[in-house]
Amino acid sequence: MQAKRVIISGGGTGGHIYPAIAIANAIKEKQPNTEILFVGANGKMEMEKVPKAGYEIIGLDIAGLQRKLTIKNLSFPFKLMKSLRRAKSIVKEFKPDIAIGVGGYASGPLLRQAGKLGVPTLIQEQNSYPGITNKLLARKAKKICVAYDNMDRFFEESKIVFTGNPVRKEILDIAGKKSKGLAHFGLEEGKKTLLVIGGSLGARTVNNSIKNAAKQLEENNIQVLWQTGKYYFKDMKSFVEENKLSNIKVHDFVYEMDLAYASADIVVSRAGALSISELCLVGKPTILVPSPNVSEDHQTKNAMALVNHNAAELVKDVDAPVVLGDEVVKLMNDSDKLIKLSVNIIGFGRPNAADSIANEVFKLMN
């Protein structure tokens, strides 16, 4: 049988990149001879992360429109036209059997051109509220794989397939890894542990909130595994060292997320789609602090899908610097609530999401 060819396009953040890689891996597991090409945006993190995962990637010179008035917006039409031309030539040269869009700057030009050239397209929409690009691309897409209910508000119902969001495979198995995780990160056995994750680039409000709560957490005998993001790492590490906070372990980025989740009693996290999907699978009691700096306020909508079912707690970004420490201490001491949150969030997990999406891909190609 002739090898199938697949283009996967998108990126910008870990929330787009890691699901894309998980989909690629699932496709390869089912048909090892499938040829897969990624298309991303030059200067974005997919240009580094995708080759590390073993896949070829081509970059487009595309960037998003800034929501504030800025001179950078003047170059947007030129970059878009250049990216559309480049995307067209990539599709013509590679001759894919399908094009998959996972969100991010590059998915728009690539899927638009693939559709115009007669290539079937599939969208993987990670959020409970889609961005404008996916709403536009959905008109020509053959299938739309979603992770939340009621997405027929945005997309044609006949195209929707509920798959969940794909996650990194190692996260599916954290059972029995707590001691290993604590030892790996230099944390103490028998001590209550808080994991703080603000996304791959970090989150200013979350970091400042933990900084404000540091003494309170120490006084309540809570140790912290703190992923600050690369932009905030230096300042937060200095703060911890200057205040001799031996209960806090600071990292710019945590690669061993299975061990981090295994170590945690509670997680404080932004409400990006990938983070929420992982948290649903590991079943950890979670306090979500949605970022207000995202299109359509989709992180709040992601969070409320859990909060409304008593599957997570929510602290608003504007309130977090003052109240987050209190909320962590209160929840850490409420064993009934911890159990309830853990049981309820697991009900939202979709461990076979990548396989389900791969199945839809092969249906369209065949």
SSE map:
Layout: E1 5-9, H1 14-30, E2 35-41, H2 46-52, E3 56-60, H3 76-94, E4 98-101, H4 107-116, E5 121-125, H5 132-137, E6 143-146, E7 160-162, H6 178-184, E8 192-197, H7 204-219, E9 222-227, H8 233-242, E10 248-251, H9 257-263, E11 266-269, H10 273-282, E12 286-288, H11 298-307, E13 313-314, H12 320-332, H13 335-346, H14 353-365
Parallel strand pairs: 1-2, 1-4, 2-3, 4-5, 5-6, 6-7, 8-9, 8-11, 9-10, 11-12, 12-13
Largest sheet: 7 strands, parallel
What's the end-to-end separation, in Å? 12 Å
Top CATH class of the largest domain: Alpha Beta
Could you say how many structural domains there are in total? Answer: 2
Percent helix range = 40-55%
Structural class computed from helices and strand pairing: alpha/beta
Task: Count up the helices.
Answer: 14
Radius of gyration: 21 Å
The CATH architecture of the largest domain is 3-Layer(aba) Sandwich
CATH fold naming of the largest domain: Rossmann fold
Q: What topology, given as strand order, has the largest sheet?
A: 3-2-1-4-5-6-7
Percentage of β-strand residues:
15-25%
